[in-house]
Fold this sequence. Notes:
single chain; alpha/beta; two-stranded antiparallel ribbon; 12% strand; globular
Amino acid sequence: MKSFENYIPTRLEFGSGALDRLSTFKLPGKRALLVISNGKSTRSNGYLDRTLKQLEKAGIESVVFDKIQANPLKETVMEGAKLAREKSCDFVVALGGGSVMDASKAIAAMATNEGDLWDYVMFGSGGKKPFSRPALPLVAITTTAGTGSEIDSGAVITNPETNEKTAVFGDSLFPVLSIVDPMLTLSVPPFYTACQGFDALFHSTEGYIAKGANPVSDMYALAAIENVGRYLARAVKDGSDIEAREHVSFGNSLSGMMMSTGECTSEHSLEHAMSAYHQSLPHGAGLIMISLAYYSHFIKAGACPERFVRMAKAMGMEDAKEPQDFLAALKKLQCDCLVDSLKMSDYGIVPDEFEKFAKNAKSAMSFLFSCDRIPLSDEDCVAIYAASYK
C-alpha cells in the first residue's frame, strides 16, 4: 500500500442552514475583513446581510471588501491585503465561490507578509520565496460547489502583467472553519452550476489518474466522482432540487479533500493558460472544452485503463468494461448539463494561440505536468487544444 499524508486542519460544518449557525462557532478574531465578489448576487440573495448579522451576533466587527473578479487578479489581492492592514483586521471571512476563497487566502497571506504576492509564487516568473509569516486565519463560506477551495491550502491567482494564472500554497492557507450550506447554492444559474460542478468533478478525475494517487486520495476522489457525476445534471435541470445540491456540494468538498491528500494533473494547467489570456472564460467552461480530448489522449496512451473503468462506474455506468466507457459517461453528462456545445471561439480563442497556451501552461503551472502518469510534450498539448477547438 502506498504511503500517504492526511492533513486537513479545517473544521468543516456541512448542511442546509449551516450559515445560520455561524455565530455559535469559535471564530478566530474580533475584526474581520469580509471578502465578496464584485458582482451583485451575494447582496441581492441576502447572503451578505445574513453573514454580517451572524458576525455581529458573535461580537465581531466587519469591513467589507467587494472587488473580487471571476478569475481573481494579483492587484486586487494586494488591495485587499492593504485594506486588512489599514483596518487592523485579525482574520478574513470569504463569502462566495472559488474565486473569492482563493483571493481571500492570498489576501490573508499578504496581510502579514511583505512585498508583492508574486514574490511567493514558486512557478513561472514568481519570486519563489516561502511565506515568512503565517496568514491571517480564514473562515470560508462557500456559495457555490466548484473548487473545493474551502478545504485545501492553495489559491489560484492571475497576474495580467505576465499572463500567468498559477497558485500559491501554505499550511496557514487552510481555512480554520468552513461553512458549506447547500442552500446557498440554490441561486446559482444552470450554466454556472454546470461549470462549477465539472470543475469539482475534474479535480477528482485528475486526482484518481494522477501519478501520486494513494489510498486516501482514491477514497475521496471516487466518492466525489460519484456524488457529482450522479447528481450534477439534476442540479442543472432543477436548481431548487436540494437533494441534488447537497450531493454536488458534498462532492465538491470531497474534491478539496482529494487535493489536500493527492494531486491534480496537467488538465488544470492547460485550462489556466486559456483563462489567463481570456479573462471572461469561466474556468469550468474551459475545462469542459478540453476534457474529452485530454482524457482520450491518456486512454490512447494506455495510462491506467482500470482506473478509467472504475471512474465510469462511479459516474453511474455500472456495466463499464473499457476505458472508453469513461469518455461515454463524461460526454453524456456534458450533454445532460447542456454544456456539450461550448466553443473556444465564443470566448475569442483562436488556434494561433495554442502553442502560446502550451508554453504558458508548462511554465506557470509546471508542477501539475509532473503529476501525469505519461509525460505530455508541447506537441501533445497543442494537439489536445486543436482536437477541442470549435
